[in-house]
Design goal:
This protein is an all-alpha fold. It has 5 helices and no strands.
């Protein structure tokens, strides 16, 4: 993951995307257990949390799945 990926994760956090993603009706069904766990961590820790490169990649993968399901 590049710095751009991490910045995208942080930007989405500031915009409340991860909270909306966690509340999305199909999140648990669409995401892997790892993706869902990292999503929970992102929401719990808030905008001040900086994910590792691997966590940022998982979150962006999760975001793509949820957006394909209609999350905005």
């Amino acid at each position: 993951m590049t710095i751009n990926g991490t910045l995208e994760v942080l930007k989405r956090g500031e915009q409340g995307f991860w909270k909306r993603a966690l509340a999305w009706r199909n999140a648990r069904r669409l995401l892997t257990p790892t993706e869902f766990g990292i999503l929970e961590t992102a929401v719990k820790r808030g905008a001040a949390w900086a994910p590792s490169d691997a966590q940022a990649k998982s979150l962006l993968d999760a975001a793509r799945k949820l957006e394909a399901d209609g999350l905005t």
